[in-house]
């Protein structure tokens, strides 16, 4: 699920054959410009998505903000946050927290993870889902280094431009930790989808993102969250409202920055863009 920060596929080359033009917006006033770019956290290696319009936005921005900063080479902060929030004593065995019919998928994913099997029984359900999503992403050939945020961070860093975050690793994982158990189990179900289901879902998401089809992205997110109002409220609505308030506060400072967050947060009726428009800000799509 694209909410995870570590944020392939059925024929990615078929999608890449047509030049990708993911959606890009700007919010402006007299002395401030904020570019809003919807991302996919992980991508297959060498997937081309940059355009001249996006390149210009990067070049003219003096700072980048992302959801959270994960240091791929030294993820100490993420590991510490996961250890602090993601483990508890006295939990039901992980196999008892999933539909019995899907236990073979669960056990196969655990075996691929390389994590000792007893550890999963002490994991909060969301943390088990987080861990097993990493297995799913690896199976699909996705890499953090190829993701949009990491690429942008590398570009800004190479030019000596600062990179900030909207949420710390602990804050972001805290959203998952506060989910009711039913919602956490929905995450776990999604994390152990069979390979073909995962390929189909990612391919659909990638097509919508690469073509700039915001309605398709919104449909994907609505479908993913339709069975769990708690997931929608905590992971989408609350965070979108928080981020829109942050943007409105940042509009009071002059300058040009880029904000890159998961594409689902910039699509649909509850999106960051919808909040900004409701509050009277001028939002213009430029790609």
Question: Summarize this, please?
Answer:
By secondary structure, the chain is α/β, with parallel strands linked by helices. It contains 13 helices and six strands. It has a six-stranded mixed β-sheet with strand order 4-3-5-2-1-6, with helices on both faces.
Question: What is the rounded Rg?
Answer: 19 Å
Strand residues, percent: 5-15%
Helix and strand succession?
A: HEEHEHHHHHEHHHHHEHE
How much helix, percentage-wise, in residues? 40-55%
Decide which structural class fits the backbone. alpha/beta
Q: Please tally the helical runs, counting DSSP H or I stretches of 4 or more residues.
A: 13
Regions with pLDDT < 50 over 5+ consecutive residues?
Answer: 1-17
Shape summary: globular
Mean pLDDT: 88
Our measurement of the CA-to-CA distance between the termini, rounded to an integer number of angstroms, reads 25 Å
Order of neighbouring strands in the sheet with most strands: 4-3-5-2-1-6
Number of separate strands: 6
The largest sheet, given as strand count, sense and whether it forms a barrel, is: 6 strands, mixed
* Tally of structural domains: 1
